[in-house]
Amino acid sequence: MKPTRGQGAGDHKEKKRGSARRLLITIDGPAGVGKSTVSQSLAKHLGYVYLDTGALYRAVAWKIQQLKSDPNDPIQVEAILSHTDIGILPQTDGIAIQIDGVVVEPGALRTPEVSQLASTIAALPRVRAWLLPVQRKFGEACGVVAEGRDMGTRVFPQADIKFFLDADVTVRAMRRHLEFAQKGRDQSLESVQEDMTARDRRDRTREIAPLYPAEEATIIDTSHQSADQVVEQMMKVIADRL
Q1: Which domains does the chain possess?
Q2: Which of 24, 51, 118, 211 could join 61 in a cystine, given CB atoms 3.0 to 4.6 angstroms apart?
C-alpha cells in the first residue's frame, strides 16, 4: 500500500509560510447529521484541505463488493487489503479517491449497499489499522478539516479543534431519504431509518474506535439548523483559537 496525498496536499502545505496559524480540525458524528456538507463548507471558508475519511472505508467496501468477496471472512479481507492501493487526491471541492490507480466515481462509493458494507468492515480491526496511516499521512498537511467517526478520538487525538455533530435519528433519516430521492434512488423512508439505526448501533458499539464525542469536542445538534448556521457556530469557536 502506498498512501497518496497528491500534489494538492503538498501545494497546500507550502501555504503555511507567511500565513496565519493553520489548524487540524476534526468533525465526527453519525450518518445524516450533515458532516460532509458542513465539513466541505468549513474547509472552503478557511481555505483548508477537506478529508472525507468515510470515503476511504467506502473505497475498501467498494472493492470487496466488486470482487464479490465475503466481508465477514478475515482471510478474504486480508488478501484484498494486501493487493489494494488507495490514494487521496485533493480537489477544489473535496477529494477524489483513487483505487489501484483508477479514480472511482464518487456516486459509486455512496450507494446504500456500499455504505452499509462500509459500516460492516469499519468494525474490523484489520481494516481500521490498515487505513490509519493513510489518514494520518494526509493529516500532516497544514490546514485540514477531517471528517469521520473517530477523527478526534483515535486518528487525530492531537487535533487543534474537535467538533461532534449529532441530530435526532428521524431527522437524519429524512435528510438521507431526500438525498437518495434527488439522486434517483428508490428507498422508502422507513427502510432508510432502519438502515441508519442499525448503522448507529454498529458504529457506537464496535470494540475498536467506537463512535463517541472526544472529551474536548464541541458538540453541535444539527436537528434544526442549516449547514450555514452550523458553520457559523464553528467559525466562532475557531476564531478563539487563531
Answers
A1: 22-236 (3.40.50.300)
A2: 118
pTM score: 0.82
Written as nine digits, the cell of 211 is 463512535
H-helix segments, the chain: 6-14, 35-46, 54-66, 74-82, 112-121, 125-138, 169-182, 189-205, 227-239
Q: What is the pLDDT of residues 101-151, one digit of tens each?
A: 999 998 899 888 898 899 889 888 999 999 999 899 888 877 999 999 999
Alpha-carbon distance of 98 to 59, in angstroms, equals 8
Residues with Cβ < 8 Å from 106, sequence gap 6 or more?
55, 96, 97
Residue type, 56: L
Spell out the residues 6+ positions from residue 26 whose beta carbon is closer than 8 angstroms to its own. Answer: 145, 146, 147, 148, 151, 152, 155, 156, 159, 161, 162, 163, 214, 217
Burial call 113-124: b when 16+ CB within 10 Å, e when fewer: ebbebbbbbbbb
Q: pLDDT of 65-107, one tens digit each? A: 999 999 989 899 999 999 999 988 877 767 889 999 999 998 8
